[in-house]
User: Fold these one by one.
Assistant:
Number 1:
Amino acid sequence: MKGFSILLILIFIFSPLFTFSQQQQRDISVGTVIIEPSPPPPPPPPPPGGGGPGPIVTKAVFRGKAYPLAFLTILKNGEVAATFFAKETGLFEKELSGIAGGTYNFSIWAEDKEGRKSVTLSFTVSVLSGMTTVISGIFISPTIELSPVQVERGDPVNIFGQVFPESQVDIFVSSQEIVKETQAGPGGEWELKLDTTPLEIAEHYAKARALYGEGEQSSFSQTLSFLILKPGALVCKGADLNFDGRVNIVDFSILLYFWGQKTPSNICADINFDGIVNIIDFSIMMYYWTG
Ligand SMILES: [Ca+2]
Ligand SMILES: [Ca+2]
C-alpha cells in the first residue's frame, strides 16, 4: 500500500496532465502515472420524448489490468458496488452509473481462477456531476501462493500465482533481502522455484510485484510466510523419537541419552531444533506423552 500511496502522490503531481476534455470526460490514472488515451465519448442519449436536454448522466469508469477472466469486486465507500469478470486478455473495464457527483473512496480487488485474492487497491476520487470520470491504469497486484510452506534448507519452495499475462514478476524474499525475477506466461500464470540453500533456518516472507510494458507497475501482492528447517528436520516425528507411533518411556530414554548435547547425532532428539537437547524438549515430550 505504501507504493500505491506514492503513486497516488505522483498522480497529484502529474495532475496537470489529466485531460478535461470538451466532451465532459475526465481521466484519472491509478496505479501508474501513465495516462491512457480516452476513448471517444459516447453519443449523447436521445432526449426523452423528443426535444429538451437529455438527462445528466454521472458515471465512473474503471479500466485496467487483472488476470484472464479474473473475478473483480469494486467497493464504493466500503460497500460492494459491482462484481464482474475481466476479459480473457486480462484487461477489464467497468462502468458505474447512477451515482451522484461527490468524493468517493473506491476499492478494487481481484480473485484469480484458483480463488486466490489480490491485495485491495483503495483510492479517493472526486466524481463530478454530469461527467464521466475515467479511472484508468489500474494494475491489480499478482496473486501469490507458496508450496510447501515448510522445507528443509536446500529444498525448493515453489512461489506462484497469477498476474496480467506476459508481465515481469519480481519476487521479494525477506528477512534476507533476495529479489528474483520471473516472467508470466500467456495465461498470466507465474512461478518461481526458490532455492532455499542461501536462506537461514528461520521464518521467511515472500511477496511479488508485477511490471508491464514501459514502467507500469502493480502494487505488492499479499505477503506469505514460509519456514526453513534444518536438513533432516522433516524426517523427525516430533517427540516420537523411535517412530513407533507412541510417545513413551522408550522415547524418554533416547532423549536422556542425548541430554545436554548440542547438535546431537540424532537430530530428532532436539525436538524443537533450537540446537540443544534440554528441558524444553522434555516438556514437549511430556505434552505429547501417550504412555
Ligand atoms: Ca515412540
Ligand atoms: Ca531443543
Number 2:
Amino acid sequence: MDAGLPIRAFFTTREGGVSAPPYDSLNLAVHVGDEPHAVATNRARVADAAGAPVTFLAAAHGIAVARVGAPGQSPPTADALVTSVAGVAVAAIAADCVPVLVHDDATGAVAAVHAGREGLFAGVIDAALAEMLDLRRAGAAHGRMRASIGPAICGLCYEVPADMRARVAGRHPAAFATTREGTAALDLPRAIEARLSELGVGEIVRVQECTAESPRLFSHRRDGVTGRFAGVAVCE
Ligand SMILES: [Zn+2]
C-alpha cells in the first residue's frame, strides 16, 4: 500500500511472497524461523517493487540510527536507517510495532524507523529526525519534513499492564489508551503522530489499518510465530 509521500514509498502486506505458513507469504524477516531462501526471494520482490536494492533494518529496540551510504549496503543493527544518497532504499520491518517513513524536502533524505514501545519511549523518533536535520547542514533551504506512519497494532488491541501504560504515557500522553474490554492499553501510532508533530513534521500520513485486526497483515500479538512486513522508502 502506498505510504502517501511524494517519493516512492510503500508498506508491504502478507501478499505476494513465497513463504509457507505461518510466514505466508511475503515474510521479510530473517530472524523469525522462516526458510532463508524464501525470505531472500521475498526481499528480491520488494526490491523489484522499489526499483532499487533495499537495505532492511535489523531492529535493536533502542534508538540506534545508522546512515546507509550506498545502494544495497547491509546495515549494522539499528532502529532507524537514514540516507540522502540517490538510489538507496531503506526499509523498517515490523508486525505490530510501528514502521515510520520520513522524507525531507530540503535534502531529499529519507528515513525508515522501527518504533516499538521501548524504542518510542527511549526516543527513536527524535533520534531519527535529529539525523535528518544533521544532513541539512548550514545554509540548506528550509524544507518540509513529511512522515508516514504505517500499519501497527491499535490502541483498542494493544493491551498492556497498567503500570506499563502509566510509564509510557508519562512521557507520551497520547499513548494512553483503553481496550474494548476496558483494560489498560497503549496507542503507539497516535503517540508517534503526536511526537512527530511536536518535533515540527509538517505533514503526517497515518495508515489506519490495525495489524492485529487485519488478516492481510502480520501480527505478532495475534499469531505468535509469524512473519514481518516492511515500510520501504527510496531516496531519489
Ligand atoms: Zn486493533
